[in-house]
Structure formats: C-alpha cells, structure tokens
C-alpha cells in the first residue's frame, strides 16, 4: 500500500494547470444585494398572505390593514434603510414562514456554510455566481476564460425559483464553445453512484455531451466535514482531468493516423501497377498471406510511425501526459460505479473487465 499523501486541492489544481475557477450555484443567490431585497419582499408577501405580522422590529405594522400603496411605501422605505441588514431580515422572516410554504428542497443534500468556505479557500482565483449573475455576466466573463479555467456548476437552482436541471444547459453551452473542464454539483439518490448519474445526464443531452465533458460531485454524499467535501472534490477533479486527457489524446492521435492513412493510400496508388501486382498480389500468396492482410499491415505500420512522430513534435500531448502521470503518482482515483457494460457494434454487450482490448492495456 502506498504511503503517499494525497495532494491538497490547491496542489492538485496546480498540477493540471488550473489557474481560475468559476463557481455557479444558487448558494450564492443571496450574495447579491438586489437578490436579497427580492427575497425579503417575497417572504413579506408570504407572511401577509397568512396575516402574520413580521417579528423584525422595523416592519412593525407593515401587514396591518392599511392601503396597499402605503404598505408598499413603508416596506420599501425600511428596505432602503436596512440594506446592510438584509441577510438578518431574511433569516428572521424565513423563521416565521409556515413550513408548508417553504421550499421542499432537502437541505441535507446541500453544502453547509463550512463546506462552502472550505472549497472556496481551497480553490484558485475563484469567482462565485448565482444563475442570474452568470446569465448577466457571461458575455464579459467567458472571453476571459481559458482552457485552464475550471467550471463548477450546480445542477439544481431551486433557490432561485428555477428548475432542477438548469445546470445541464450551462454545461452544454460551455461545451459547444470549447472543451472546458467542468464539474456538475448535484444530488444523488440513495445507492446511486455519480457515474450512473453522469451517464444519465449524457443520455438526456441527446448527443450534445459526452462522458469526457464533465464529472459529477454529489452534495449529499460527501460527508459533513470541510475535509470530506474537499476530498470528494479532488476525486471529481481527477475524473474530469483523466477522461478529458484520454479523449483529447485519442482524438489527436486519430487525426494523425487518419492523415497517415490518406497519405499512404495516395503513395500506393502512385506506384506502378506492376509493382503493386508483384508486391501485394503475387508475393503475398507465395508467403501464404492474404492480399488484404498485406494492405492492412502497410497502413497500420505507417499509422504507427506517424503517431510516434506526432507525439514527439506535439508539446501539448507530452505536457498533458506529464500532468496525468503526476496526478496518478500523488493520488488514487476511487471508483463509485458498478461494473459498466459497453455496447459495441461487433461484440454486443461486453463488460469492461471482460474486454480483451482494455484488459491488455490494463496489464501493461
């Protein structure tokens, strides 16, 4: 067993070159004074509908039977005077709202203030935004984001009176512009792994997302301590870093190999037909090999040579690989998913563990 200590969140982000974080979450909805004011007005309306007098002293008589314009003027005057105390007002009014009229969201599935503080402290150059803040600021913010920006996106924005999958839209929007590093914050059902949920989100997106686009972090499964939420966040980072690197590297190598195939085909057909007849159709039969097998070996050899040269001359591939190796040396990637079945065109449903292709690489 390795005695290597897992890196801190800041160390892990530094290893992969993340230099800024954008965190979009309805937990930051009330960070905005305008949103605080709207929330206070909403709570006052709920109390008035139930004829409940606000306990906060400044609102004495605000729910009494007085003309609407006078009541509204008094409320707005108090809010103007108490701008610095809006969080305390919201807390006081919330305590008075009957339970049945409160949001039905499960607070046990949310981060605690201590966990939010721990994450914000551990992140690098972090900006926190509510959904509405994001919508208003993204035209200016997005052009300043780079491939080294990590996006932390809440999936459920019910605190802002929005749907429970609004984060999917933000994720899709980001991936349509560039392949960004993204982690979706969400709630999972009992015994539901984040990997299962990740696949469900991809399926729902109908081709607009793939598994390398993001990872999932469950708010309700991280434990109650700041250390636990940081540890789970590190795991989510490892998932998206590893999956995206594999995707980018395979795509790049595929492009190199496709170009090599096209070039080799061009060179073949430019050969003398007599040379082709002798090398492929005559000599192959004399050696007991299929003509198609000879062509396949020629193409594969050129693909491999081109891929090896391409890796050497591409600094991004080598740099990214070094980052992943440092991550693997310093921390482990735990698996919370059940055995996954991969459908393939030729083999049908094949468990990953049973796939000879992947198993061969795993042994290496």
> What is the share of helical residues?
40-55%
Cα Rg? 29 Å
**Average of per-residue pLDDT values:** 80
Structural class category: alpha/beta
**Looking at the structure, what is the overall shape?**
elongated
- N→C terminal distance: 20 Å
Helical segment tally? 13
Trace the largest sheet across and list its strands.
Answer: 2-1-3-4-5
**β content, as a range?**
5-15%
DSSP E strands, number? 7
Q: Strand-and-helix sequence, N→C?
A: HEHHHHEHEHEHEHHHHEEH
* Main pleated sheet: 5 strands, parallel
Q: Low-confidence spans: pLDDT under 50, at least 5 residues?
A: 101-105, 338-364
Give the key terms.
single chain; 364 residues; alpha/beta; 13 helices; disordered C terminus
Describe the model.
It is a single chain. Helix 9 (226-269) crosses helix 11. Helices cover 54% and strands 9% of the residues. A 5-stranded parallel β-sheet has the order 2-1-3-4-5, sandwiched between helices. It has a two-stranded antiparallel sheet with strand order 6-7. The chain is built from 13 helices and 7 strands. The chain is elongated. With 364 residues, the chain is of the alpha/beta class. The model is unreliable at 101-105 and 338-364 (pLDDT under 50). The longest helix is centred in the C-terminal third of the chain and has 44 residues, at 226-269. Strand 3 (149-154), helix 7 and strand 4 (181-186) form a beta-alpha-beta unit.
